[in-house]
Amino acid sequence: MPRQGSSKREAIVAATKALLWERGYEATSPRDVLERSGAGQGSLYHHFPGKREVAAAALAEMAEEEIAVVDGLFAAGTPPLDRVRAYLTRERQALRGCRLGRLANESAMEEPALREPVAAYLGHIQASLRASLREAEAAGSLSPGIEPGPLAAALIAVIEGGYVLARVHWDEAAMREAIDGAVQLLAAVTRPQA
Amino acid sequence: MPRQGSSKREAIVAATKALLWERGYEATSPRDVLERSGAGQGSLYHHFPGKREVAAAALAEMAEEEIAVVDGLFAAGTPPLDRVRAYLTRERQALRGCRLGRLANESAMEEPALREPVAAYLGHIQASLRASLREAEAAGSLSPGIEPGPLAAALIAVIEGGYVLARVHWDEAAMREAIDGAVQLLAAVTRPQA
DNA sequence: GTCTATAATTCGATAGAC
DNA sequence: GTCTATCGAATTATAGAC
Predict the structure, then answer these.
(1) Backbone angles phi, psi at A190, to 5 degrees
(2) How confident is the model over A99-128, as a mean pLDDT?
(3) How far apart are the CA of A81 and the nearest CA of chain B, in angstroms?
(4) Does 3.40.50.880 match the CATH number of domain B58-188?
(5) What are the residue boundaries of the HTH tetR-type domain, all occurrences included (chains A, B) (predicted)?
């Protein structure tokens, strides 16, 4: 199964990536994908067994792309707490929801092939946060009683929960306020320098 | 339109409440609702114009029920920071997702009648957290640089994001760790007494 | 490898008897 | 107020020509 030289396969995956972000998994039909990609029925079922596998391929690409962006924010060279703040305050389209995390409540998460890329993406961010916070802790910049692991978990939760708040209130400011709170908390439990 | 004396109407709404939590809005069909409630086609469309209105009635009841539970946790009599901790650490079924917040990424949120109960529920929790934190602030128990508003937003975001993490990793512990982090942060920015 | 045509099922909703 | 029967459209997938 060649992954190169097939124009329609790439168009199908690209269309699926866009639709999964816009509508999620259940609300995206093969028909929608074909319409947006300009491919015919046969192309999709020639390259993939069915809808699930198309989505799995699209999600894998989405996770890879987003992890690369996140890795840019966590690149060495800047102090660890600056990297954490850079992640928290990066630009986001709050109302569109998290490109991968938005699938959390779909039945798709019962399919390992669909859950894995999403888990890998969020797990990678959490690990990056934890590593930076451990560096800060080693440099004596973390208040006693604050553990890097739970703090990292709380921070990624603020981001994913911030998307939920923005969507539910239909207001970008709802997410900004939650992130503001996280930034204030981080400042309160850290000392400059590291 | 009598809201009493109609046995099937109540059965339909009860079944819808269960299905919205289990599967969400788009994945719940009128057929599913009728099967679970034991009602026939005609009963649903006699009592409601269609699927959207059944869901709106179910969500309104769900929000009312959950708000009553939350109000119990925030009842006066206990110190404000104890109320906040009680909310953070209350028992939850992490893998089932937030009964209302789980709809955040569905197209249902574009319908005001469906978005409103969800927004009212999360807004009520956030307001209760903010009020308790303001009390603590007035008693001098909040660190300087920590504002009750953003802190309340961050805390409710940790809860909603915690559900996302648990679902995506399919692990209750993922949510517990995020809440642990929030509890550690809260302890670090408050003083006992208030 | 790509296309069109079509199948079997489910979707949300309506008709009309009782 | 409740039921069964049914509709037209959409769903995921298959068949088979080119």
Answers:
(1) -130, 155
(2) 98
(3) 16
(4) no
(5) 6-66
Q: What DSSP string describes A66-116?
A: HHHHHHHHT-TTS-HHHHHHHHHHS---GGG--TTGGGTTSGGGGSHHHHH
Question: Do B178 and A157 count as a contact with CB atoms less than 8 A apart?
Answer: yes
User: Do the Cβ atoms of B66 and B99 come closer than 8 Å?
Assistant: yes
Q: d(Cα B95, Cα B108) in Å, to the nearest integer?
A: 21
Taking each helix axis as running N to C, give the angle between helix B112-138 and helix A148-169, from 0 to 180 degrees, rounded to the nearest 10: 130
Protein residues closer than 7 Å by CB to strand C: A 2, 5-9, 38-43, 45-47; B 26, 28-32, 41-42, 45, 49-52
**One CATH from 1.10.357.10, 3.30.565.10, 3.40.190.10, 3.20.20.70 for A56-188:** 1.10.357.10
Contact status, residue B73 vs residue B124, Cβ threshold 8 Å: no
pTM of the model: 0.97
Number of residues in chain A: 194
Name the residue facing B105 among A24, A143, A152 (closest C-beta).
Answer: A24
Strand D: protein residues, Cβ closer than 7 A: A 26, 28-32, 41-42, 45, 49-52; B 2, 5-9, 38-43, 45-47
CB A173 within 8 A of CB A181: no
Which 3 state secondary structure label does DSSP give B142?
strand
Average of per-residue pLDDT across A3-10: 80
Using the beta-carbon criterion (under 8 Å), do A168 and B27 form an inter-chain contact? no
CA atoms within 13 A on the CB side of A109: 24
The beta-carbon neighbor of B145 closest among A156, A182, A188 is A188
**In this structure, what token pair is assigned to residue B38?**
């034991």
From first to last of its 194 residues, chain B has per-residue pLDDT tens of 445 568 999 999 999 999 999 999 999 999 999 999 999 999 999 999 999 999 999 999 999 999 999 999 999 899 999 999 999 999 999 999 999 999 999 999 999 999 999 999 999 999 999 999 999 999 999 999 999 999 999 999 999 999 999 999 999 999 999 999 999 999 999 998 64
Task: Identify whether the C-beta of residue B110 lies closer than 8 Å to the C-beta of residue B164.
Answer: no
